[in-house]
Amino acid sequence: MTEQPSPSEQGLNPLAEQQTDRRHVQTGDLAMLFTSDYKRYVLHMHPEGVTHTHLGIYRHSALIGQPWGAAVQSQIGHAALLLQPSLTDLMKSLKRGTQIIYPKDAAYIVHRLSLHAGSRVIEAGTGSGGLTTALAWAVMPTGLVYTHEVRPDIYQVARENLAHCLAAVCQNDARRYRRGLQGQ
């Protein structure tokens, strides 16, 4: 979530970085490690990043540049698949400060609202960002989700959850909402 002008107002495509090479893991991508014991770890890739698991350490610098679907090894030799996370993976990996809406319910809401790329959505009550994630996923890359959370502590949890993947399509500006969204 951001308090800056929308991507369309800035002339930005929130997915532009990720569209340069979709076959290989890039810095800034969200990735998922799927381990041999069926555990899933959603990661925000950056060169200095390190993910510690019960099966060893996976250094992001060794993962960046790998093709999606590659089998990778921890420093102690345990294998994992390097995959692009699905919407369900993202929603289930959120830190929770409140009850979240789960993927099957979020899919129903997105369906009933007939959301598509370019749609604009107003959400009251961001919570941990579970539904916000699904809404943003549905309206990307040119749509926007205007979301509002009154509790600062819960807003901070949602902000952190959405920061790595969906901040460019989510906005939270209570002052503007009180005035209305005319002309948006």
Q: Which labels suit this protein?
A:
Rossmann fold; 9 strands; 184 residues; 4-stranded antiparallel β-sheet; 3-stranded parallel β-sheet; alpha/beta; 2 domains; Vcp-like ATPase, Chain A, domain 2; single chain
Break the fold down into its secondary structure elements and pairings:
Layout (H helix, E strand, L loop, with lengths): L6 H4 L19 E6 L4 E5 L5 E4 L2 E4 H4 L7 E3 L5 E5 L3 H6 L10 H10 L7 E5 L5 H10 L4 E5 L3 H12 L6 E2 L2 H6 L5
Parallel strand pairs: 7-8, 8-9
Antiparallel strand pairs: 1-2, 1-6, 3-4, 5-6
Mean pLDDT: 82
Radius of gyration: 17 Å
Strand order, largest beta sheet:
2-1-6-5
First-last Cα distance: 17 Å
Total DSSP E strands = 9
Which overall shape is indicated by the principal axes computed on the Cα atoms? elongated
Which structural class do the helices and strands define? alpha/beta
Q: Helix fraction?
A: 25-40%
- CATH top level label of the largest domain: Alpha Beta
Task: Identify low-pLDDT runs.
Answer: 1-19
**Mind describing the biggest β-sheet?**
4 strands, antiparallel
CATH architectural category of the largest domain: 3-Layer(aba) Sandwich
Quote the beta fraction.
15-25%
In CATH, the topology of the largest domain is named: Rossmann fold
H and E order: HEEEEHEEHHEHEHEH
Compute the number of helices.
Answer: 7
Whole-number total of structural domains: 2
CATH superfamily of the largest domain: Vaccinia Virus protein VP39
